[in-house]
Structure formats: C-alpha cells, structure tokens
Specification:
transport; ATP synthesis; thylakoid; F0_ATP_A_sf; mainly alpha; transmembrane helix
C-alpha cells in the first residue's frame, strides 16, 4: 500500500464536492456552517445590546466567556492568558456545539445523494484540522515569545532526549485528533444501533450520557490546547 492509497482512506461514505484538484466532504461542511451560524447568531443576539445586569442570552454568553477564561487562566497563567481566550473559546464552543448537535439533532432524517449528515466532529478531517490548528498555535506562542531559542527545549534537560522531545510534539496533535474523533464516532454508533434494536425510550439514558461525555470531550480538548500553549510559553531554566 503506497502513501497515496493511505492518504485516500476514509471512514464511511461521504458526499464529495470536487474541484479540479481538491475533494472535500460536503456533509461535514454543511453541518460545520450550520454550527458556525448558530454560534454567530447566539453571539449577536446575546451581545448586541449589552446591559450592566445581564439577562437572557447575555447570561449564556457571559457564562461561556467566564468558563473559557478560567480554562485559559488555569492552563496558561495569569499574565499571558488573555490573548489566548478567543482561540481556546472558539475551539471549545465549536466542539461543544458540534458534539451536542450530533447527540440532539436528527441529522439523518435529511437524506443526501451519498453519505449522511452528522456532527462535524464525527469526521476525522475536522478533528485533524482542529488538532493541527492547536499545534500551530503552540508553536506560534513559543516562537513569538522566545524566538529561535524556543527550540532549545528539544535538547533539555539533555541533548540525547532530542528524538523523544520531537516525537512528543508530533504525538500531541495525533492524540487530540483521535481521542475526539473516536469518542464521538463511538457514541453516535452505539446510540444509532440501539435505536434500531430496541424501543425509543430505552436508549434515552445512553443519549443523556452521550451529552455528558460530549461536553467532557470539548472540555478536555480545550484544556489540553491551553496546557500545550502554556507549556510552550513557560520559561525553562
């Protein structure tokens, strides 16, 4: 099996949108645009007319902001966390709403010529893109603060650890990608199979558990992203 064959592997059937040189998963783009639209509408409605005493959707948006700010402050530190709140917040909210959309919305009712709609995080390309963005973010954080001396970390505390330190940076995005993809895919498959085999009400406890684990996966991804950025920013002596 050559590299081109490996690169073309995919999980399940997909609705491909093709250009001359690129083929993308149309069903994933559709649901991703829907999620981004929901987040944008909630943000505009919640923050369009800010009040000193929040009410309605402003309560939701302010709670989300404080929650994300706490994650960033805990993982990155008091002094440098503020500039990373938008990045970590975007990652967290996109994954959270995507996961819950897969658990709550009957995507499969909408038929496509090929493939089926589902949570964007049910596509390994989405989780790989999120993991890659996280990798770029922590490299940018470290290099922008320390310059070329950032790469000294690869030979600390001893030069012979260089291969291990390099391998660690390659495994970080892989672990983020496959952890999120595997958990969301497994959850949707289990609930889907049970809905086919047993009456409607039986899978409800599992669906509730799926909502909980979906939220935990979003929290884990955002927390690890913050931890990796914080690690690249901290001073090594």
């Amino acid at each position: 099996m050559n590299l081109a064959t490996i690169a073309s592997l995919s999980v399940g059937q997909h609705l491909y949108w093709r250009t001359e040189s690129v083929a993308v998963h149309g069903e994933t783009l559709i649901t991703s645009w829907f999620i981004l639209g929901v987040l944008g509408i909630v943000s505009i409605l919640g923050n369009g007319n800010l009040k000193s005493i929040p009410e309605g959707l402003q309560n939701v948006t302010e709670f989300a902001l404080e929650f994300v700010r706490d994650i960033a402050k805990t993982q990155i530190g008091e002094e440098e966390h503020k500039e990373w709140v938008p990045f970590i917040g975007t990652i967290f909210l996109f994954i959270f709403v995507s996961n819950w959309s897969g658990a709550l919305l009957p995507w499969r009712v909408l038929e496509l010529p090929n493939g089926e709609l589902g949570a964007p995080t049910n596509d390994i390309n989405t989780t790989a893109a999120l993991a890659l963005l996280t990798s770029i973010a922590y490299f940018y954080a470290g290099i922008s603060k320390k310059g070329i001396s950032y790469f000294k970390r690869y030979v600390e505390p001893a030069p012979f650890l260089l291969p291990i330190n390099v391998l660690e940076d390659f495994t970080k995005p892989l672990s983020l990608c496959f952890r999120l993809f595997g958990n969301i895919l497994a959850d949707e498959l289990v609930v889907g199979v049970l809905l086919l085999l047993v009456p409607l009400l039986v899978p409800v406890p599992l669906m509730l558990l799926g909502l909980f684990t979906s939220a935990i996966q979003a929290l884990v991804f955002a927390t690890l992203a913050g931890a990796y950025i914080g690690e690249s920013l901290e001073d090594h002596h």
